[in-house]
Amino acid sequence: MKVENTGGYLNKLNAEDLIKANGEQGALKLVSQQFEAQFLQTVLKQMRSATDAMSDEDSPLTSKSNDGIYQDLHDAELASRLSKVNGMGLAEVMTKQLSRSFQSAKDPVAFDPQQMTTTAMQPALILRPIGKDFK
């Protein structure tokens, strides 16, 4: 008996094919969406297991016969669709963060040679004043 892999995420993980078909930025966006979908699926699975632990076994709303596989399939599809429509924004943030590695190597590290310090975190350390007197 021969088993063939016909689909799923594992067939879509060839980086060279993704880059050829979508370019570096497109491939990065697709991989980020897939990661977000996997993350959302894990969150949904954990949420469902938490609610199952607290549910009443005698309730007519809970049937244990066919729930497992169908709920997993539903959660996977829901997570995939949510990630494609900016469900959490995780894919967008990952794409922005990781796309910096594709930019030119002019500034590999934010380093100011005259000050001899790194400047990467300086914008994050600037506190904006709060109040009516400040503009």
Describe this structure in words.
- 53% of the residues lie in helices and 3% in strands.
- The protein has one domain (9-106).
- The mean pLDDT is 72.
- The chain is flat, with a radius of gyration of 23 Å.
- Helix 1 (15-54) runs antiparallel to helix 3 (90-99).
- With 135 residues, the protein is mostly helical.
- The protein starts with 14 loop residues before the first helix and ends in a 10-residue tail after the last helix.
**Mean pLDDT over the residues:** 72
Task: Give the neighbour order of strands across the main sheet.
Answer: 1-2
**Percent helix range:** 40-55%
Overall domain count: 1
The number of helical segments is 4
Termini separation comes to: 74 Å
DSSP E strands, number: 2
Assembly state: single chain
- Element order: H for helix, E for strand: HHHEEH
* Relative strand content: under 5%
Helix and strand content put the structural class at mainly alpha
Sum up the overall morphology in one term: flat
Rg for CA atoms: 23 Å
SSE blueprint and pairings:
Layout: H1 15-54, H2 67-84, H3 90-99, E1 111-112, E2 117-118, H4 122-125
Antiparallel strand pairs: 1-2
Helix pairs in contact: 1-2, 1-3
Relevant terms:
135 residues, mainly alpha, two-stranded antiparallel ribbon, 2 strands, 3% strand
